[in-house]
C-alpha cells in the first residue's frame, strides 16, 4: 500500500490550500503597494503603514479592541472552564440538557440573532450601552468556545489521577487546582487565545451591542470597507493577520516543544529505568 | 468518625457543587436565554417612533392593569407582514438556497482536502491541520474584504483573465450571488474540512487492507469502506457550515450588493436602517424556527462526540 | 519421589537417532526432496529507509502445512507475512505462490486471505455482510454468496448472530467473524496475524485447538505470525524463529525445543539453563567442558564434527532434564553438582526449584513433575541438594 501521497491527493492539497491562502497573500502584498489603485502595482512602499500611525480614529479603535479582548477573553476562560467542568465532572443535575444546549447553540447561532437578542436585553434592563455591554456580549459567546475546547480535553483526561488525589486525602476543590488544572492548562490557554481572537475579530455582535465611545477596530474597518478597497485598510488587515498568525504559531510551537520535552524526558526515564 | 466523614462529603459535593454549576448556568440564562424571550416579546409589539422604538411597554407601576394592557397590545401583526411582503420570504428562501449550494460546494472541495490530509504522512499532519485552522483565526471581515479586491470589475481576477486573453470583457462577479457563494465557501471551508478530517483520520488503515485482501480494489474500497465510515464527519461538517451560513450578514452585505437577498442582511437593515425593532425581532424568531431542527441535530452530534467517550 | 535411574532408555541412543518431541510422522513434506513447496520466499529483503526489516530470508512452505513465524516484536515476522499478502513489496528477492511470481500483484488479486490482528471488521456492516464481503467482490451470484455465508456462520458457530454489528459481539465472537470472513473465499493460504492476541488465556487455548482442527478439516495452508512461543508450539507443524529480520531456525516444534541451533533459540523458547564453558577435550561424540561458573568440569554429548579444544561453547540444559534430590544420587550418575535451594515455585502440575550452585552465584533451574500427591521428604527452602544430569540431557551450542 502506498504510504505517501498520490498525485490526486497532492493536487487536492495544493489547490485547497491555494484557495485558502492566495486571497490573504494578495491582500498583504497589496498593502505594500505604492499606488492608490488596487489593480495597479505602483512599486513597493510602506507609506500606508506610516499613514496608519497618524490615523487617530483607528488607533483609538485598536486600543478599545485590545482592552476588550483581554478582559472578555479572561472572563470567558474562567466561565468556560467552569462550564466544561460542570459538564464533565459534576454528574447529572436538573436542567443539564438545557445547560449543554446553551453551551453548544452559540457556536452555530447566526450572529445577527445573538447580537439582536442581547441588545434587546440591554435595552430592556436599561443598561447603558458601551464597553460594559460589549464585554458581556463577547464573554457570553466566547465562553462557549472555551467550554468546548476545555471539555474535549477533560473527557480524555485520566480520571484515576483525580481519584488518586482524593484517595490520598486531597479535597475535591484543591484537587482541581493542584491536579486537574495543571494538566488541562494547555487547553485552557488555547481556549483563552481562541476567546481573545474571537473577541478582536467580531463585527456583527459588536455592532448591535456597542454604544457611543466604544468603537472597535472591525467596526472601523467595516465602515471604510463599505466605501471600497483602500490600501490603508490592507495595511491594518495585514498587521492584524501578522499578530494573529505569529500568536498562533508561537503557541503551537510552544505546545509542541513542551510535548517533545515530555516525550524526551519519558524516553530518558525509560532508558535509565 | 464516620459521621464526620460523611458530613464533610455532603458539604463539599453539595453546596460547593451547586455554586460551581450555578455560575456559568446563571450567566447563560441571563445573557443567552433571557434575550430570546425578550426578542419573542418584542416581535409581538408594534413599532413606534420613541425610545425604545416599540410599544406596548410593560408598565409594572400600573399594577395588574398594566400587565393586562401590555398583554392586549401584543399581536402577530409583524408575522403577518413577513408572510405578505415578498421581500421577507424571498430572503428566507434565497438564504436557504445559498446555504445549501455553498454547503454542497464545500463538501465537494473539502472532502478531497480532508482525505488527502488524513492520508498524508503522520509527521506533517499536525502542520496541515494548523494550516487549515490558521485562516479561521483571521477575522472573517478581513477575509471577505480580501475578495473584494479580487472579484471587483477592475479587480485582480479580471485583470488576470483579461491579460491572459481568456475573456475580452471584464466579468461582473462582484455584487452577485456567485460572489456571495465564493465568499461563504471560502470563509467556512475550514469548518467543513476539520470534522471531515477528524472522521477520516480515525479510519483504521487495516480496514482498507482487509478490503483489499478480500478482493476490493482501492477505488471500490473507497466507496465501500471510507465513505460510509466518514458519514458522521460529513453530517457534522455540513451542519457546522450550513447553520451560520443561513444567517450570514457580512458576506452578502460586502460581496452580494443590493440584488442578493439574505435573511441576515434583511434583519440587519430592518434594525439599523428602518429602526423597526419588532419586525427584525419577528425575522429573528422565524429564522430561529427555521434553524431549530438543524441546530438540534448538530447539538446531538456534538454532544455525542464530546460526551460519548466520557 | 521416583528414584532416577541412569538406565534411561534414551541414554544409549545417539542424539541424531532420537525422536524429538511429538511429530506427525504421516505429514512431513519438507523432508521429501521431490515435494514442490506451495509458497517460496527466495532471498527476500525488505528495507524501510535505513532500517532492514527482513534480511535475506528464504523459506519454503508446503501445501496443507500449518506454519508459524515466531519472534519478538519488531523481528520482521509481520512484514514477511504482509509481503505475502501484498501490502508490502520486497526490496529484493521474490515470493512465489504455486509457482507464480507474486511481485507486482496487488493484494486484491492474490489468492491469499488474512485474518488481521485487530480483526479489522467493517463496523458499518453486519456479521453476514462482513463474511460475504470478499465473495461480493468476486461477483458471485447472490444465492451462492448466501449459501457460502451460511456455511461459514455454521463453521464458526455464529448462526444466531448473523445480523449483528461487530460492536454488539464479544471479543471471541469477533475473532470468529474475522476467521470466517478470511476463510469465506477459500483462499490457497490463510494468513493469521497474531490471531488470538486479544483473547484471554483460556479462550485462546480452546481456539488454538479449534484452529488446528479447522486447518485439518479444510486442508488449507495456514501461516501464523505470533510472538507467543507456546501458541506456535501448539498449533504449528513447523516453526520459523526470527530475530532482527533474519531467519534463525526453521524446524518442527520438537526440534526447536530439544535441538535449538543457537543460544538465541534456546533462550527464546521455554525455560533454560545456559552454562558458559570452554572445551577441555572432545572425541567420539563426547566432550569434557570446563564450565566458567561454578568452576567444574562436565561431560556433554558433542555434535559431529566435534568442537575444537579450547573453543568457547555453551551447554544449554532444560530444567526438566535435571534431577534433584537431598539424598546423594546413584553412584553411576554423571555431572553431579551441589547447591542450596534458593527459591521454589509451585505450579500444581509441576514444581520449579532455583538452586544456587556451591562456590558461585549461578542459579540452576530445575523442574520436577508432581507425579504423586504427597511426598515423603519434600525439598524445602535452604535445603542442601544434589543436582545432576546426563551428558546428552542438554545441547552443546557453538553459537
Q: Outline the low-pLDDT stretches of chain C.
A: 1-21
In this structure, how is the largest beta sheet of chain C organized?
Answer: 6 strands, mixed
CATH-wise, what's the superfamily of the largest domain in chain C? P-loop containing nucleotide triphosphate hydrolases
Helix content of chain B: over 70%
- The best one-word shape of chain B is globular
Sheet-strand content of chain C, in percent, reads: 25-35%
Sequence of secondary-structure elements of chain C: EEEHEEEHHHEHEHEEHHEEEEEEEEEE
Structural class of chain C: alpha+beta
Strand arrangement across the biggest beta sheet of chain C: 6-7-8-3-9-10
Q: Write down the CATH class of chain B.
A: Mainly Alpha
CATH fold descriptor of the largest domain in chain C: Rossmann fold
Spell out the CATH superfamily of chain B: MetI-like
Q: What is the number of helical segments of chain B per DSSP (H or I, 4+ residues)?
A: 14
Query: Sheet with the most strands of chain B?
Result: 2 strands, antiparallel
Radius of gyration of chain C: 25 Å
Distance between the termini of chain B: 34 Å
Helices of chain C, by number, come to: 8
Please, how many domains of chain B?
1
CATH topology name of chain B, in short, is: MetI-like fold
**Structural Rg of chain B:** 26 Å
Family (chain A): Belongs to the binding-protein-dependent transport system permease family. CysTW subfamily.
Keywords (chain A): Cell membrane, Membrane, Transmembrane, Transmembrane helix, Transport
Membrane topology (chain A): Multi-pass membrane protein
Protein name (chain A): Putrescine ABC transporter permease PotI
